[in-house]
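Hi,

I'm pasting everything inline rather than attaching a file, because the server keeps stripping attachments. The sequence lines come first, and each chain or strand is labelled.
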Amino acid sequence: MAFDSFSAFLTMGGHGPYVWSSYGAFFVLMAALMISSLRRRRAMLDACRRNFMCQGKEPGRADRPAATFTRVEVSQD
Amino acid sequence: MWQFFHKLGSPKWFYGISTRLMPWLLVIGTALLMAGIVWGLAFAPKDYLQGDSYRIIFIHVPTAFLAQSAYIMMAVAAVVTLVWRMKLADVFVKAVAPVGLVITFLSLFTGAVWGKPTWGTWWIWDARLTSMLILLFLYGGVIALDRAINDEKSAARAVAVLVLVGVVNIPIIKYSVEWWNTLHQPATFKLTEKPSMPAEMWVPLLLAVLGMYLIFGWLACIRMQTEILAREQKTRWVKDLVMAGRH
Amino acid sequence: MTAKAPDIRPVTASVGVAQAMKSVFLRDVRVAFRQRQDLLNPLLFCVMVVTLFPLGVSPEVSFLREAGAGILWVAALLSVLLSLDHLFRHDFDDGTLEQLVLQPQPLFLLVLAKTVAHWILTGLPLVVLTPVLGVMVQLPGNSIAVLCLTLLIGTPVLSLIGSIGAALTLGLRSAGVLLSLLIIPLYIPVLIFGTGTVAAASEGAPVGAYLALMGAFLVLAVTLAPFASAAALKISLSNS
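And the predicted assembly:
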């Protein structure tokens, strides 16, 4: 342990605000990136499932040619 | 050999293998990163020049490494896109560009916050800082171009051309920015690099760098999976996948 | 309308590459001279940008002398950027570009010819204008001469790199802003060396080595940029 006490660990020899704000930004942004990536995949899986369910209910729609566009806009945050 | 190459290009195969790989990437990556950070924050000795502010290095260096290597990986994928038209390669470029942008921003931000106690200012027009800023612009350009083109195939190939033009320019930009820096401002400030870091400092740093790469791998996998689902949503295997409810 | 009709003669297999490049070049120059306002706009823009600096920062001689070369370089860079949108746009709109792509001659050479025409019509007038602007920002005579030389070597590089961006953003919404976003980072080395050379000259240092480095940029851009823009053009055309 490089510090004598927990409060010394928090103050970081006077550099506490700098160290903790950069670590804070790092964790917040990385967590946001990971969570948003997870949620986008979940949303995409749900959208696919909903598509197939709708097709199942209405047999007339299933043999229509697949949609003419392939690119799907997913909200990117 | 070609069989393998073909398999590698198949989105279905990639989806399966990455689903199996991702938990490992996430768990081992997070463990290494947290071990490196906790070790670096609490146990590594104090730097005798910079005091405790140097502890930012344990996130600054991993992000800076990754910011540059992510662009190089994108350039490799761009070559594959243009030469072999492999589907997965352009999925990779599209999926990774926003990650690269965030990580480059993080390395700039942590660098700026580190600069304040060390150099006495948030920002100096140091060669390395400036070239990282330009890297941030390059990532931004890639994302902007990808969003602007509606047709998915042309978007992929246009972005590949842009990434390659950027990667040819990166050494030129780096070199010219360094030249410019020495011309305008003799090295008053330099990152205090001691030739030999003690092991208690570089081992946690190495752990954090490795962990960061693994987490990047996880992010790339999950974002590529999202993109693959978007492109292949009418196919049979996606139907089997989502209806079976395993994901 | 007939006056503006594409003046390109049908190029048969017997026409050599040099002949084809020449006719593409001459055609671009001729079209540009029929729309003279388009030729004048970048120059006016450059003069106006330069005017903003004494008004916005300081009209003092010491400031202008120090910052003058940088101001002129930035103004020239921005005017080239502004004019790039026209490089392929008209030909794209009226279908000439598709004819160009279909020619038996290698596309990158035809693109090179178009880029050279663009430089003659935008970069070269800027170089000619520079001495006047240099006097306005109080640069000493020696610096003005070196500045003109750096612009003479540097503006073709700007046109060449810019042609890649123009080809990539062809036919997109808000192509102009996107073009700037993509291209400005790539312009940074040229700007650094252009202004650095003038700064060295004003301190009395020899500038031969700097000019040689800029020449190296030019050679690199001439050899690589036409390939990239030809590839980008093909992608953009298959898109629409």
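Residues 91 and 97 of chain C are 5 Å apart (CA to CA).

If the labels don't parse on your end, tell me and I'll reformat.
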